[in-house]
Amino acid sequence: MDHPSSPQGPSHPDDQDPGAPVRAGVPEHGRVPKYYAVKVRIDALIGELGESGPLPTERDLAERYGVARETVRQALRELLLEGKLRREGRGTVVAGPKVEQPLSMASYTEGVRKQGRRPGRRLIALDRIACPAPLAADIGLERGQPVWHMERVLLADDERVGLESTYVAVDRVPRLDRDFEPDSSFYAYLRDRLGVSFGGADERIETVLATPREALLIGTPPALPMLLIHRVSRDTAGRPLERVRSLYRGDRFSFTTHHGDGVRRGHD
């Protein structure tokens, strides 16, 4: 049986990554689960291997660290969920850095490009539907009026990282099915082709699990945590413009925001 152990790595807050757990995740009683000690050592190995580097097999890792394969398996599960590793074929490789998306009116395209990656989208559906009652108020319509529903898989360097559903009134973008390139930025289309600018938005973010269909489209296990953003956008005149449901892989995305210098720091 594996017993608690001390992980190899920094144990003092001043020695560790500021984004890491306090005391490197060591509980106050000082007893560390064996899998966590192995996880810390594999995490260090990840840094040595570099992006896309192949990880040794579970058997090799178990022999290297002198633990049971189930202990290694538990450590790998957490590293996969954290986005530090990814499955490739039958093996496991080191994942690249997460995409940082600003929580602002900047488009997905702009956010990914700032990370030095190539944005893309793959169209799943573009349908004209009758506006359902729950959606009508959000985009300033009456129930039953025509609405576009556009669903696209989000890509970063051809890697599937999310799924986006956009709802917009047909009378705002009547030629969406003819003029719009589905792999391009919807914001840029509105701005450059129609002269429509975004004036503001209300957003809500939560953690969810993908449905089986969503997991299949994004290419992830159903148990993988996702970051879900609901957004209702308005134009510069304050008129409702679109409602968007964006689902992002929790292991491949993080979100950033900026507060002005006048914002009070600290906690009550």
From TrEMBL:
PROSITE patterns according to UniProt: HTH_GNTR
Superkingdom field: Bacteria
Protein name: GntR family transcriptional regulator
Segments of this protein annotated with the region Disordered: 1-28
Keyword Kinase: no
Domain HTH gntR-type: 30-97
One Pfam family recorded for the sequence: GntR
Keyword Membrane found: no
Keyword annotations of the record: DNA-binding, Transcription, Transcription regulation
Species this chain originates from: Nocardiopsis mwathae
InterPro entries linked: Bact_HTH_transcr_reg (IPR050679), Chorismate_lyase_/UTRA_dom_sf (IPR028978), Tscrpt_reg_HTH_GntR (IPR000524), UTRA (IPR011663), WH-like_DNA-bd_sf (IPR036388), WH_DNA-bd_sf (IPR036390)
Gene Ontology biological-process entries: negative regulation of DNA-templated transcription
